[in-house]
Design goal:
single chain, 7 helices, 38% helix
């Protein structure tokens, strides 16, 4: 059973980042669960995303299988099709002011097209929404301990529930959290956080496990999105 897991790295910083490194560690943990697990990471900093959802309601009236959103940007043309095809998602973001990054928020706001759209949403061909029962693992990196990891993971989990998805938790946690405090200029300091590295592997295991169970049930029911 092939499983596609798509990771969204939500830092607006290009190049090597703590959020990027943590995302890679989670994906590495997913691939270790079997040769049937395919992974891909989209780094939002490298994409052109023209803001969040404008609530223009275009998707409610004119959405098609080929075009999920009215905006002509990388979210619509590149990211959305991959999100639709993915069996599970990983959402990773740095923590800014006790919450997710502005770029991650823009990306997630656009998911309204999958929840309410004419084709992919509850009003359309997918009936319950394309994300119904799709597992998602959240990850967050803060500068210091108690710097907003839990509040950010809580927001991500709430978003998943709103979209009809299944948030995958770690053991005694809301997802994968890391601390990256280090002298300015030091890259990838989150790798020095042993708890983050352990949670990345545990979260990956639980995400693949949940995805396999849900996909098996859906295939037996003959309903991909129900």
């Amino acid at each position: 059973m092939a499983i596609k897991i798509l990771g969204i790295c939500g830092t607006p910083v290009k190049g090597e980042t703590n959020t990027g490194y943590l995302t890679e560690m989670i994906m590495d943990g997913c691939r270790k669960q079997g040769d049937d697990v395919e992974t891909e990471i989209i780094r939002l900093a490298d994409k052109k995303i023209s803001g969040g959802c404008n609530h223009c309601n275009w998707c409610l009236k004119k959405q098609t299988p080929e075009k999920a959103c009215a905006k002509d940007d990388d979210w619509t043309n590149e990211i959305a099709p991959k999100v639709v095809e993915a069996d599970a998602l990983v959402w990773a973001t740095p923590v800014y002011l006790m919450r997710m990054s502005w770029l991650m928020a823009c990306y997630l706001d656009r998911h309204r097209a999958f929840l309410e759209g004419r084709h992919y949403g509850i009003r359309g061909q997918e009936k319950n929404g394309v994300h119904n029962h799709k597992p998602v693992l959240s990850a967050a990196v803060a500068w210091v301990t108690h710097g907003g990891v839990e509040t950010t993971l809580q927001l991500l989990c709430q978003t998943a529930i709103c979209l009809g998805m299944i948030p995958v938790a770690g053991i005694l946690s809301l997802g994968v959290g890391g601390v990256s405090g280090a002298p300015l200029g030091e890259l990838g300091a989150v790798r020095k956080d042993p708890n983050a590295m352990a949670e990345a592997q545990n979260g990956a295991f639980r995400l693949v496990e949940m995805t396999r169970m849900i996909k098996t049930v859906k295939e037996k029911m003959g309903n991909k999105n129900g």
